Amino acid sequence: MNKFAMVLISIPLLALSGAAMAGDPAAGEAKGDVCLDCHEPAADFEGLSATDIEARIRAARAGEFKHSAEINDLPEEDIADVAAWFAAEGGK
User: Fold this and answer.
1) CB-side exposure of 29: number of CA atoms within 13 Å?
2) SS3 label, residue 39
3) pLDDT tens digit sequence for 3-60
4) Nearest to 73 by CA among 17, 33, 44
5) By C-alpha distance, which of 42, 43, 27, 39 is closest to 71?
6) Can you tell me the distance from the alpha carbon of 12 to that of 72, in angstroms, rounded to the nearest whole number?
7) Is residue 22 within 8 Å of 50, Cβ to Cβ?
8) CB 23 within 8 A of CB 81
């Protein structure tokens, strides 16, 4: 396969990489109000990265562990932002 074809194949993969999909902590602060009823960012998510927090949110939504029903009020498109905000507040 020539180099040009490899570059063309790589472009969509780069667009879907973690860097391209990183959340916006400032936007997450406004969107994560429902989470603050039960979670204190600096305590509950201390030492966790945004990726880790995002995985926990998705696991809770999937019913992998007991969580309040409000987790389902968080729109899918806001999860990365909320996770980024919690990570900035108490994570790493």
Assistant:
1) 5
2) coil
3) 544 444 555 544 444 444 589 999 999 998 878 888 887 788 889 999 999 999 999 9
4) 33
5) 39
6) 29
7) yes
8) yes
